[in-house]
Amino acid sequence: MSKLLIIGSEGQLGSELSNFLKMKYDRNDIILSDIKNYSNSNLIYEKIDALDKDNLSEVIKDYNIKEVFHLAAILSANGEKDPMLTWNLNMNSLFNVLELAKEKIIKKVFWPSSISVFGSTSIKDNTPQFSITEPSTIYGISKLAGERWCEYYNMKYNTDIRSIRFPGIISSNTLPGGGTTDYAVDIFYSFLENKTYECFLEKDTMLPMIYIDDAIQSIFQLMSANRKDLSINSSYNLSGFSTTPDMMENELKKINKYFDVKYSPDFRQSIAESWPNSIDDLYARKEWDWNPRYDLRRTIKEMITKLKEKNNE
Predict the structure, then answer these.
(1) Which long-range CB contacts under 8 A does 134-138 form with residues at least 24 apart?
(2) What is the pLDDT of residues 20-29, one digit of tens each?
(3) Nearest CA to 111 among 42, 159, 77?
(4) Regarding beta strands 3-7 and 44-47, do their DSSP bridges make them parallel or antiparallel, or are they unpaired?
């Protein structure tokens, strides 16, 4: 029986995806991989450098893997610290997977893109699927290039590469990984510790967000869809809800009126300002029945509950 592989299984998205998939598949059919020496999961784990195509190919063949979730990447804020490393990892690891799909060694691939493909020249409100894409970060540039390559392989080689442009993902399972939307996770740690949170964005910076459970559900829905129903060969726009740091602060103050946020914008502010305020995800809703379940208030409730449980473990 064929198996599936998660590349980057120990990150924010990968760790949650593996927990979700083990409820849907036989545990022995899920293989995890990352560059760490071990996994926090009890599923089958292989240490793999996603840039090592030979090792990657060997593992895929050994386990008869036909479906790959390629999640390894350097995110937006960290990417600006070392652009060439970011380009190398984000692009060349993708090429390794695309080539294995071209060779028909693997049949289906999921690869996450991002709202970072948009830039200051894009429409800010309800940014459409087909919009100007002029990203200003190396992360965004790599994601835009990746989208174009995914579409090229799908059209040229009849591969089945599927992708979503994720907004900021809010999750309690792992610590923030160096993204521009990380404040929406960081703020909860300060809130639960009764500390003033120092936010690196201006209070009125509106950005699209999504709660992790919705993000994982979107991956599962897209990968379960009939290929014939999908018209987007690059990456689907996806929306959860939009919020600002000030809106999150005000909701948290309804729970603890003494909670305080100090605003000290840094280099991430200019990145955030180049991104959309909100996303039009019409194609995802129409073609694979996308419908988010979490708004800001429900997300805040879930984050507080999950982090309290985590702190009590």
Answers:
(1) 135/274, 136/270, 136/271, 136/274, 137/76, 137/79, 137/80, 137/271, 137/274, 138/79, 138/80, 138/83, 138/86, 138/87
(2) 999 999 999 9
(3) 159
(4) unpaired
- Burial of 123-153, coded b for 16+ CB within 10 Å and e otherwise, reads eeebbebebebebbbbbbbbbbbbbebbbeb
Tell me whether residue 263 is one of the annotated catalytic residues: no
Helix (H) or strand (E) holding 164: strand 161-166
Asked whether the beta carbons of 137 and 209 are under 8 A apart, the reply is no
**Residue 310 and residue 289: Cα distance in Å, rounded?**
32
Which position among 45, 139, 153, 294 bears the catalytic label?
139
Residue range 145-192, pLDDT digits in tens: 999 999 999 999 999 999 999 999 999 987 777 788 999 999 999 999
